[in-house]
């Protein structure tokens, strides 16, 4: 006869990260008539602005947007280096791999490499390699057995309770950030902006009443040419905050924010003084994404039996994310950029981090890095050097856990001229979330064998509870109850169960 079991439902979202996909895009660009011919290309930088993201009906991720490119070059005539600035549009897709039911889709874009080749003094070819990291949520509708029917007192239940972090919801908001940046005192007036670099990070996220309040920091670095040809760099950390709707969430929830760049522009002057060469205006379009999480308690039946008849159980596997913990590690990195020529002065430096990955099963995280340096050689010629390398956070992942991590270079980059080139010293912060995937067998149903005849055994059973055995397993073997064993042996509670003495095992009646 089929067992009557009570069930409870759980509805929530779980975070999912899908495999990354890559894209190569390129463009031929013509030097404007107002600019001099190109004598030599020095360097190329770019910002990824990802404006479109979609999960298609055939289960593919699509990303679209532009790469904001700055090509730094030496003109055949004119004062100092110039910049050729343009956009390279991209649109690419990657396989979704069982992502048809994805919700709250997010895609992070990363510029892995970019280079420019001169085709002739008036035309260049720029090639950019991009990597995209899709993530999102999947809806989970879980039904688990929690209790037996009230009409069968012979059923014995082994209940368990587990706690897991789940996603309660996601909120997004696009917003504009505009900041006026005065040039450093003692510097000359700006005649041309050569390139702009940006790094975004969240610093705080909390639910206050029905509002989600988020704060973050924009690390901006602007390379510009002064009147007279000298190069200067303006670096500033710019704080920002935003308020998003938090209806439907409660104060005891946890939240975290991330940010995506949609468009970027930096120009000389301000709205009130558009011709002021001592002021710059940075205009950004950003998207804030807040993921709100909560703890979900899952009660389930891990095992059952009957004291009156045999039971055939159907089981299913329950997978829960447990032991979730956020942690950070800070690394001091030193790297030599070999130039092959004597360095007279360092003009600008930049360090970037790629996607963090687990290294084998040793609990180590590997962080891909790249470093770039703009410098003057012994002949005062402007040149650049770039190096790709990696560093590791050792032993940061506990055994049996997996980690999701993101790294960033925060703070100043210290550059020292050495005989072989330029030595860079900087700090890398790796923020990670570790979790263990717990897997449990739970009872999904069962049937009792009404024709089962419980063979009469000895009226008196004495035995020890062996190592690796539990009171439950002994009681189940003899179709008695844990309470009966404790009571007849005058043991107050299961935690005081001895393993070195014979216990009387009462027969169920």
Tell me how many strands there are. Answer: 23
How many helices? The count is 2
Helix proportion of residues, in percent? under 10%
Strand coverage percent? over 45%
Report the structural category.
mainly beta
Low-confidence stretches: none
Major beta sheet summary: 4 strands, antiparallel
Element order: H for helix, E for strand: EEEEEEEEEEEEEEEEEEEEEEHHE
Shape: elongated
The mean pLDDT is 90
Using the CA coordinates, give the radius of gyration.
32 Å
Q: What is the terminal-to-terminal distance? A: 21 Å
Could you please describe the fold and organization of this structure?
By secondary structure, the chain is mainly β. Among the domains are: 310-452, no CATH class; 455-509, Membrane-bound Lytic Murein Transglycosylase D, Chain A. Helices cover 3% and strands 70% of the residues. It contains two helices and 23 strands. The chain has helices spanning 471-477, 482-488, and strands spanning 5-17, 21-30, 38-55, 60-75, 82-95, 102-120, 123-148, 155-182, 190-208, 211-226, 231-245, 254-268, 279-306, 310-338, 343-353, 357-359, 364-377, 382-393, 402-409, 414-418, 421-449, 461-463, 503-505. The protein starts with a strand and ends with a strand. The mean pLDDT is 90.
Briefly say what this structure is.
By secondary structure, this protein is mainly beta.
Layout of strands and helices, then pairs:
Elements: E1 5-17, E2 21-30, E3 38-55, E4 60-75, E5 82-95, E6 102-120, E7 123-148, E8 155-182, E9 190-208, E10 211-226, E11 231-245, E12 254-268, E13 279-306, E14 310-338, E15 343-353, E16 357-359, E17 364-377, E18 382-393, E19 402-409, E20 414-418, E21 421-449, E22 461-463, H1 471-477, H2 482-488, E23 503-505
Antiparallel strand pairs: 1-7, 2-7, 3-4, 4-5, 6-7, 8-13, 9-10, 10-11, 12-13, 14-21, 15-17, 16-17, 17-18, 19-21, 20-21, 22-23
